[in-house]
Amino acid sequence: MPGAMMSIEEARQYHAPQIEIFAQTDADMASALTLNYVDEAIGVALAAKGAGIPIAISFTVETDGRLPDGSSLADAITRTDEAAGGFVPYFMINCAHPNHFASTLMGAVTGATEWAAFARMHQRKATQS
Prior knowledge:
Elements: H1 8-23, E1 30-35, H2 38-51, E2 55-59, H3 73-83, E3 90-93, H4 98-110, H5 114-128
Parallel strand pairs: 1-2, 2-3
Helix pairs in contact: 1-2, 2-3, 4-5
């Protein structure tokens, strides 16, 4: 997989033309689904930010709840969110059975994982806006 991955800038350039077309329409937002690694998600988010159209970023995870590149879901979302300056309004998971990520998300509820800090950070951001 490492040889097939785009850098952030390559991903931004690759996805920008399609995102720019969406931005010129009446579309309310765009979406990028089944992303496998963080740099592509960041590139997509930056392309959408540059075009001025909100975008939903959706990652896929393996049976262990991690992205195919080994990143944790919390790390992938946090890195993408930070790199895009909070521009992405929605993060999702797709193309994965709920059993593959249930324990990851349940850790957020119980405060047993890095998700607890992530959720608190986003709760503060939401109340500040």
